[in-house]
Design brief:
hydrolase, transferase, ten-stranded mixed sheet, about 40% helix, PhaC_N, 2 domains, about 575 residues, alpha/beta, single chain, AB_hydrolase_fold, acyltransferase activity
Amino acid sequence: MPSAPASRRQDGETELSPPEQAWPALRQAVDPFGMLSTPWRAQLAWWTHPQDLLQQANESWREALALYEHGVQRLLGVQPDDPVAPKTEDERFADPIWLESAGFDLLKEGFLSLDHRLRTLNYQAPGLSPHEQQQAHFWVHNWLNAIAPSNFFWTNPSAIQRALETSGQSLQAGWANWLRDLKAGKLLMVEPDAFQVGRDLGTTPGQVIWRNRLLELIHYAPATEQVRALPLVICTPWINKFYILDLNEHKSLVRHLTEQGFSVFITSWKNPGAELQDLGFDDYLQEGLGEAVRVVREFCGVPQVHLVGYCIGGTLAATYMAWANRHYPAEQMPVAHWTLLTTLTDFAEPGEIGVFIDEDSLRTLDQLMARQGYLDGEAMALSFRLLRSNSLIWHYWVHSYLLGEPLPAFNVLFWNMDTTRMPRAMHAFYLREMYLKNRLVQPDALTLAGETIDLDRITQPLYAVSAQDDHIAPWQSCYKIRESVNLAAPVRFVLSTSGHIMGIVNPPVSPPKRAYWVGEPRRNDSSEQWLAQSPKQDGSWWQDWTAWLHARTGEWVPAYPAASAQFPALGPAPGQYVLEK
């Protein structure tokens, strides 16, 4: 039965019919993230656009005929090209056995054809907003990933072959792995005891020289007799533990910086519980980064520092820079120049994480955080795993349970599972004001710590790094910092190959594994224009950055000790906060 039409109120606003009024409440109660409702609305949208639906039906018919022809050729012993070839990064069907068997090849191609058609239908659904299309595509894609034939024993030829080769030992090991994960309450990517922070990870020598309820400030021991006078303050993301920048002696950005003659300080954030639920973004600005900058200036006896911000730590650094340029006279500005690493300041196009950002989703998170006092790290980790469900969920499902393989001892995966909590007030503000309303790039739209925030007040030189395959902070969105800071601010922008983590944890190696583009964009240059005119260089951007830093961080001075009389050692690095679960 059709719903009653909407009517027009006297004030000119549209008055929704009772069914239309009930829909948002129903979705909020049953499906706040649109897992079922947005794909359903996409289906309904096609039925209300019959001409577009007919065109899609014709496309589906052509694909079905191509699949039928492929099947006939396989049955005749011919090896034709795949109608829908798996993407190069899709390892689910990489085993040659999927091609050797005509039956499994047809199963694979039938699934890939269905996957391609349904994802296209949802992503192009007429009459839906771009956000609704993105949600529908995202959830259909995840449902399809879950039912892929590679995820089930009897439809995975690799698993069957492994079971035969091992006389069933792989199935026995897979069952043991299943019980292990059942006990852990989650699908593990690495054994919980594979590494120990302070022994295997976060091993660069240093001392905690200052601590408050929000952070510990670590100063790394100098690796050279002399250092540059201007110290570096690294503001790490509190969405993860800081030691991603100090994994081991071969993959440590902080160790590299100390070896290059810089005095390095880093933030290690408190893993907050319900008792800190009222911590806000203001507190992270003042008690967190603001205090870290103050302490480092006093410790080294210098008027200014170089500030580095990574991910959400970079968003805080950008906010601090705008705040400080408003709060201090120009001659007292505590930061001389700064660096951003894969940082969003303009959230208009936040990438795939945007699928979780709308009023219904945030309202649900608000209610959850109000009960707990924080957002649990496991819940946040699951949302990021869903963004790459094939590689971060189903890969481990197949290899652990169907193939019976042990978990790899990979330090980045260990760090990824070493989750942290988000304080209720801070996280609600960050998601709503930054992501949903995009107020950081709106001049004076935010007031923090008593000052209005306008990125255009920032005139200090900036070195900004983004990553080509970053799905958390898309590089084109990171690039928009050039449009936001003042025209007088010199900007050097870098695009590294790889993603959000490995694009940053990118030590120089021989032969080079990665590459980067680097150049100074003009304010009106689009990201495409900048990329077209910027040279690509093999190797790590670390070397370009350290050369840029050496030119700006002052004279060589005797190395600052790891701790001092004014700021005595409170304990060795990596400190206490990073060990909190």
